[in-house]
Prior knowledge:
Number of helices: 10
Shape: globular
Helix content: 25-40%
CATH superfamily of the largest domain: Dihydrodipicolinate Reductase, domain 2
Number of domains: 2
Bound molecules: nicotinamide-adenine-dinucleotide
CATH architecture of the largest domain: 2-Layer Sandwich
Number of strands: 17
Radius of gyration: 20 Å
Amino acid sequence: MAxxxxxxxxxxxGAGRFGALHARTWSEAGARIVGVVDPDxxxxxxxxxxxxxxxxxxxxxxxxxxxxDAVVVASTEDTHVPxxxxxxxAGCHVFVEKPFAMRPADAAAVVATAEARGLTAFAGHVSRxxxxxxxLRDAVDAGRLGTLWTLRLRRDFSRAWFESFxxxxxxxxxxxxxxxxxxxxxxxxxxxxVVAQRSAAAGRAAASVVSALVAxxxxxxxxxxxxxxxxDGAPGTLxxxxxxxxxxxxxxEVIGSRGVAKQRLVNDxxxxxxxxxxxxxxxxxxxxxxGRVGGALAAEVAEAxxxxxxxxxxxxxxxxxxxxxxxxxxxIVESAESGAVVTIPG
Length: 346
Ligand SMILES: NC(=O)c1ccc[n+]([C@@H]2O[C@H](COP(=O)([O-])OP(=O)(O)OC[C@H]3O[C@@H](n4cnc5c(N)ncnc54)[C@H](O)[C@@H]3O)[C@@H](O)[C@H]2O)c1
């Protein structure tokens, strides 16, 4: 990294909803946003103006030799791999929003390109930085639950979101991928086999209902279910900072030989009732607290920044686990399409 002494210089690729939140969070963490890239020039310009950064429609326009230390890829899903490779080849660390890639070979190419240059490709799996899941992992590591037997992970998204962005790639890469990573994180093991089913209900929305049964090389199993089925009338959890109001209802259960632990993402403690409705605001993922973005996103960005600055190794989001998440999600899609048990090559 060229500028370890001063603030880390970050170029943001993708000035949409999550890109804008990333720019704010990286900036609040002490990084300097030096460039914003988006083919939608008005979006790029507006976000760049907020951060005093340059802007362009293409990464190569903004990323000059030695001009940045890291690139944050928060663009539409199918652009992540080429942008990550371009950033790494320019000598920058890269933070890649989920999905890290959508083909195992692409994920392997990103990791190989990073490692050949001594750089980090940090996969943006925000949930593993959320305190309840970190605490669950601690419980597993400390043996408080005994020998880990199985994991149950379930996630419902607002139904309305499916129409706006849920099916721009296979929904497994949009929603299931969070639990794919959480299962790997909590099991600390490599997924080796999966069988998955989609709902047989009519219409393209059926693709958003997936159930998968996963086996890990440790003998642990996991069930992963996701559906974009939360009705509009449900209490909202996300409001404000993401410009995407709605509900994420996720549940996680960890079952071991000596104990069971459960986590519910929705309605964890706070309820707000107003004349326009009831909300149970998110306090876990990216709550705005005292004017700053907090929660898992702030913790994730702080960790990525420390890794990029060479202050610690990428132990909390290792390259190999980024690869495993892509391998498992790809196997879920393959099994859901074919109905067959899919073995993931080692
Ligand atoms: N970790 C999470 O919980 C979480 C939450 C929301 C979104 N995301 C991820 O963040 C990414 C962005 O999602 P979003 O909701 O902001 O989408 P969005 O549609 O609001 O924004 C995507 C932006 O990317 C831009 N873009 C397209 N091609 C580009 C390119 N080649 N270079 C630069 N920009 C390009 C688009 O013009 C658009 O402005 C997605 O990968 C999504 O899965 C993750």
